[in-house]
């Protein structure tokens, strides 16, 4: 986009994740009020949260975008980029960006699969969780595996002469959240005894908020790793 859509990027940064989380929380709070549950949050607290976002988070996002746009240096491309994009050849389906993105989340999810059981159990079955050191280790393993898988997937994509690696690398890492949500469905059906509309909405609502945050975090880490990899391998390439 050559920096032309910086306003849209700024608005998405400031509004996408808070908007999704607030929308889900608002729906859950409405359901809790309708059922007369003690989990319902008073309307005044919701207004306070909105004011904090409107007068703190959103202005800081605008200020950070303006400072970064005006003070940033010229793009540090590892080699000269052609102005005319090359055609992308047709490849097998398993080399398509969608297939690579979906396959990329399997290994990161596998690295946290066992730990997810204990986290879900402590949160939804009210068990005491105390192995925070081991959870930190699993989190570090998740980051390392995410970076490695994204680099491998980006290599396969570039080897297939597809240079659109940016969103694919984000999707490869972010698809971990898809498998976590699918696991939460399995956990809900076979490991919990929740019934009724109220409990189901709260379970999947909070799980969806967690998965959105996890997907954005893993996607950012994966993109960072893929970007460093691409800059590294193209550093000495000469473009005529």
In short:
73% of the residues lie in helices and 0% in strands.
What does this structure look like?
The chain is mainly alpha-helical and 240 residues long. It has eight helices and no strands. The relative contact order is 0.13. The mean pLDDT is 87.
Number of helices: 8
Poorly predicted spans: none
The end-to-end distance, rounded to whole angstroms, is 23 Å
Please state roughly what percent of the residues sit in beta strands, choosing from under 5%, 5-15%, 15-25%, 25-35%, 35-45% or over 45%. under 5%
Element-by-element helix/strand order: HHHHHHHH
- How many individual β-strands? 0
Largest sheet: none
Q: Shape, please?
A: globular
Class per helix and strand makeup: mainly alpha
- How big is the Rg? 21 Å
How much helix, percentage-wise, in residues?
A: over 70%
Mean pLDDT over the residues = 87
Features:
single chain, 240 residues, mainly alpha, 0% strand
């Amino acid at each position: 986009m050559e920096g032309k859509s910086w306003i849209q990027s700024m608005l998405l940064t400031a509004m996408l994740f808070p908007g999704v989380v607030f929308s889900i929380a608002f729906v859950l709070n409405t359901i809790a009020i309708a059922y007369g549950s003690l989990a319902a949050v008073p309307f005044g607290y919701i207004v306070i949260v909105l004011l904090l976002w409107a007068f703190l988070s959103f202005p800081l996002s605008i200020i950070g975008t303006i400072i970064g746009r005006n003070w940033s240096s010229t793009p540090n491309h590892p080699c000269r980029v052609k102005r005319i994009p090359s055609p992308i050849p047709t490849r097998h389906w398993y080399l398509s960006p969608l297939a690579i993105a979906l396959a990329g989340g399997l290994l990161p999810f596998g690295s946290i699969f066992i730990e997810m059981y204990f986290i879900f159990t402590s949160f939804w079955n009210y068990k005491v969780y105390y192995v925070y050191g081991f959870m930190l280790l699993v989190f570090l393993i998740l980051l390392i595996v995410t970076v490695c898988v994204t680099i491998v997937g980006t290599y396969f994509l570039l080897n297939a002469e597809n240079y659109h690696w940016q969103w694919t690398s984000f999707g490869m890492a972010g698809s971990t959240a898809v498998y976590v949500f699918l696991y939460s469905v399995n956990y809900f059906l076979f490991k919990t005894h929740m019934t009724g509309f109220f409990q189901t909405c709260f379970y999947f609502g909070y799980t969806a908020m967690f998965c959105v945050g996890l997907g954005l975090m893993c996607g950012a880490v994966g993109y960072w790793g893929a970007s460093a990899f691409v800059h590294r391998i193209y550093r000495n390439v000469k473009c005529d």
